[in-house]
Amino acid sequence: MLPAAAQDVLEQPMHGLRLQNSVFRISIDRDTGALVSIANPTDTAGMSWIGGPQNAPWQPRGSLWGLGFADLGAGQLHRGRWGEPTSIRQVGETEVAISYQVGSLAVEVARRLVGDALEESYTFRNTGDEPIPMRERGKASLAIYMPCNDHYTSAADVLENRAHAHIWTGGSSSWIAMLRMGGRAPHLGLVLTQGAFDGYSIEDRDQVTLSNTRGTILVHPAIDTLQPGQSATVSWTMFWHKGWEDFFAQALRRSQQMVRIDASDWTNFPGETSTLIFQGQLGSSPSLMRGDTSVPLRRTSKGWQADVAAGEIGEHIATLKYGSGLTTRAVLNTVADLDTTVAARVEFIAQRQQWHKAGDPWDGAYIVFDNEADVPARWERASDRNSGRERVGMGVLLAKWLAETKASSDDIRRSLDRYYSFVCSHLQREDGYVFDDADQPRKRLYNWPWVMQLHLAMASLAKDAPPLRRFAATVESFYREGGAEFYPIGLPIAEGLQALNAAGMTAEHARVSALFVQHGDRLMQRGTQYPASEVNYEQSIVAPAAIILLELHQATGDAKWLRGAQPHIELLELFDGRQPDHHLNGISIRHWDGYWFGKARMWGDTFPHYWSSLNALAWDLQGRATGDRRWQPMARTTLRNNLSLFSADGRASAAFIYPTTVNGRPGYFADPYANDQDWTLVHALQVKKEAPV
Q1: Percentage of the chain surpassing pLDDT 70?
Q2: What fold is seen in the domain 264-334?
Q3: 3-state DSSP assignment of residue 680
Q4: Within 10 A of 11 (CB to CB), how many other CB atoms are there?
Q5: Contact 371, 653 (CB under 8 A)
Q6: Are 35 and 46 in contact (CB under 8 A)?
């Protein structure tokens, strides 16, 4: 029952409350006071940009937009949730005030449509006689639910009705840029105007919805203890925008706290320097600190700039103080240069990640390594931790490194030869059929192109025909098994055709070329109506479509392939973030790989995850095909920012779990398993041939 005060102000439809004007249509749940829909009345799709009962019925009702919880101390078990309004007062069709009381904490929520913006504010007030700790158990103890409509249902649905949510909780300068997955404007933006966020978390991930939902997003306001009678407010503005540049322009105009931060590089090699550019209302004397070291700022026509030296290997936080007590940050990283990183990783794989046990089907395989136990994880039986699949990338990396460096490392070559023997005898039949695991013939079409790449890499070392014949047999087997309907990762079209041609294998070249062209024709015919795969829709479905067509253009010179790739390139770019953090900038949204491939079995955002580097291949191919110079720097950014998955000692991590918490478990850590991340280094070596990384 709606409180009487609200009933007196405005009669509402039976299904809930509504705010509306010419640019916003807002629906509010009458029982909880939460937002259940934010739509643009001019949008022909009628899309809601947030999760609610209509478009995300799998999400709990207690996780609706604007609900939340705070730490009320030990007597309340450090958790008090607001969700039952004590009053709702609506003024006309453009303003509503909702009050909650949780113990001695009052929560006042105000929502107003002002011109072309939706303004929200949350005021927390201590109405009791004792201090309220708010975040005694850590910053995740205080949270506001923001369930963005970031879900993968089907390609037909997501391109019009779902959004990528790019989140930056950078203190005083925090924002969310939502982009419709199909790229059509208007898009929804959010910028903080008062207070600060210092993290975000994910809830509602499980083994039912699996990889197809981002989960429910929660932001963590930076509010600590409230003394009796004390209050604190966080506020933000939401607005429609046309894309990234328009988002930043509007956010800077709408919020005095907003700072746009760009960098020449977010990840640096030792001895390098990154130039940071800060745009916003920074006042007359902003200051920048990298750790305990002051970094000079200079005012330029582009904004305030600073040159930040790479420093020691590791993450470096550059903290900006500006305005009246405002603070934000940029997160940089320093890693060993690419050649050093690859050499250390190759050595580690050969010495530590190869299984040695005579009579074991896995004998000779490169397998998952547990960095905590400091041993190979032979006990693993799950398919994403077996002796095949993505882990073939380790063999590809060793072969490509040996071919590029012409290194005379007998130990590494012996290890690789042993691994190649394992693949040819336990992961593949003579007719080219690829197994899912040693001697396990379960069909998974993703596996074929990775074995193709291994054969090509071995052929580049041996300079003889058997690996190339195996490559051709693998290609033909792939298409016999239905590959033309599939969106494979890593199909080596240009490299494969070039190798067959160079070897004078004209018959094999003709057969393989015809199969690749038929595959490309099928992708062109289907367009952006992507079929579901292991995930209903994802970056690593769109990226292969773009790369396959761009490689066909590279191999044939036919402009139709370049034209056909452009819709995929446009959709692929929407996955990448532009936050001022090496974990996020140029990194695609992915949020399930930690569960399937990591030791911690954690759902939630993986920033970075190595398949982001597929985008770098697409950007590199696009740049070379079009001559447009903006693409190669994007490829460099993506590749460099994935290098945080590798350590100077050769160890690696399958994924970095970025959120503050996921389903209540602490996040922001590199998973202890070295699993399948080495494809990033393979991709870096590929791109390095054409442009510096």
Answers
A1: 98
A2: Immunoglobulin-like (2.60.40)
A3: helix
A4: 8
A5: yes
A6: no
